[in-house]
């Protein structure tokens, strides 16, 4: 696999590492999202461990309002974090 393919597979693997913990193994509950953000995105999302940040992020991702974040909904978070990370590289 190419480096990009490895990184993309890594995103899928991280999602499933957290999504299989409770309930539907293909969606993130708010608790699973909170754990994932606190461990995996703590350096990229300001206040990633803060309850209000998690609540706001979860509400923003849960487009169909089913109290779960699907992989499709999750990738919008990944895209936002990647965009911000890219913009930060130009500030340094």
Automatic annotation (TrEMBL):
Residue span(s) of domain EF-hand: 49-84
GO cellular component terms, A-Z: cytoplasm; extracellular exosome; nucleus
InterPro entries reported in the protein's UniProt record: EF-hand-dom_pair (IPR011992), EF_Hand_1_Ca_BS (IPR018247), EF_hand_dom (IPR002048), S100_Ca-bd_sub (IPR013787)
SMART domains: S_100 (SM01394)
Protein source organism: Saimiri boliviensis boliviensis (Bolivian squirrel monkey)
Keywords of the record: Calcium, Metal-binding, Repeat
Highest taxon of source: Eukaryota
GO MF, one example: calcium ion binding
GO biological process: antimicrobial humoral immune response mediated by antimicrobial peptide; defense response to fungus; endothelial cell migration; killing of cells of another organism; positive regulation of canonical NF-kappaB signal transduction; xenobiotic metabolic process
Protein name as it appears in the record: S100 calcium binding protein A12
Gene: S100A12
